[in-house]
Amino acid sequence: MHYELYYWPSIQGRGEFVRLALEDTGAAYDDVARLKAGVPALTRFLQGGPGAYPPFAPPFLKAGKLVIAQTANILQWLAPRHGLVPKAESARIWAHQLQLTISDWLVEVHDTHHPMGGAFYYEDQKPESRRRAAHFTAERLPKFLGYFERLLANGYLLGRTFSYVDLSLFQVLAGLRYAFPRAMERLAPKHPRSVALHDRVASRPRVAAYLASPRRIAFNQHGIFRHYPELDA
Amino acid sequence: MHYELYYWPSIQGRGEFVRLALEDTGAAYDDVARLKAGVPALTRFLQGGPGAYPPFAPPFLKAGKLVIAQTANILQWLAPRHGLVPKAESARIWAHQLQLTISDWLVEVHDTHHPMGGAFYYEDQKPESRRRAAHFTAERLPKFLGYFERLLANGYLLGRTFSYVDLSLFQVLAGLRYAFPRAMERLAPKHPRSVALHDRVASRPRVAAYLASPRRIAFNQHGIFRHYPELDA
What we know:
homodimer, alpha+beta, Glutathione S-transferase Yfyf (Class Pi), Chain A, domain 2, 2 domains, four-stranded mixed β-sheet
């Protein structure tokens, strides 16, 4: 099946978790909003245009007649069709549970530079960001990292079997290294399995090819992961 | 099957979405942390004690050998077993998508009184809360309400069929009325279907019995929905 991914064209954001799954599995897809006239096509869906199931926000994936929104929902649907999750129900529930925990983590990352919400520029919430980020790097980041580190005892989050959640954890780790290089360097020695997971995923042939391609949008100051040195204590 | 729900015993919080599903379907369950020695039983799971799948946070549901965490994940698993969602795959994906959008909405509700994060008391982030809540009631609340209102054209979120997502939307609407009575009263005339949905769910026999019982914890100043008059502009 040829997929259509709809997501903002200039950031990795939440869409990147879907891009990584599509790339790793070698699926055929268009990153629609990056094509000519793609952004208007995206916004038409949000205005409730085509389809009975209007997404609240991107990313969403068009797969035949289905239009699926919410990152974790998309991945949960996509993964079993491409061997990115084991068949057993318990493994799928567990994978989805971890993906939703990653979603929660992402919200907290975003809140480090936007504690007052998306309505205000970072420049208009700098003292608040500093206060929130200090707590994030001191308490929340080690808590999330420690949780996932413990699960990697056998190499991958689901044990010995690679799954889409490993792709997502790779993306979070890569993003955190970009946003908080000092905090992540300080925490690295305590999280050797996470460091190894990051490198193992990055060296998967299709992932490596994707990361080196122009399809991979660079981290920048508009996405979830932003590097503001003053927030990286 | 006899379920065990694990959630903090003194708040509705995210656990309430699971409680409502269990109650509406008449399932047999223990709200474990509200029983004697229940909180230590809960924290044992969080410390990675029993089971291969340690939750990151409550709520989680024990169903036989399964331990399922993440509210939307629990509901997605529970609903088809109790006729709370249609059988068709497209309907289930759509229901889950809406539930995840409700999860996002809840984060924004919580952020109105905790923009600096859970590390600080509300009393230590009052000016920030006021700024964030003003934007929430002016922009985000109408946006979320408008989205769900549009979907209720045929009475329920999935059309003519009642589902677990209607229970969750009821809970959000009830919570918002508690937290932001003035904003919600102002917005009510524009959202008649949501008002009707709230009342229709509240009058379902098992839901009505639950809401009138001591099992329903009252809204209070420790949960997601808190009434601070200064935030309800």
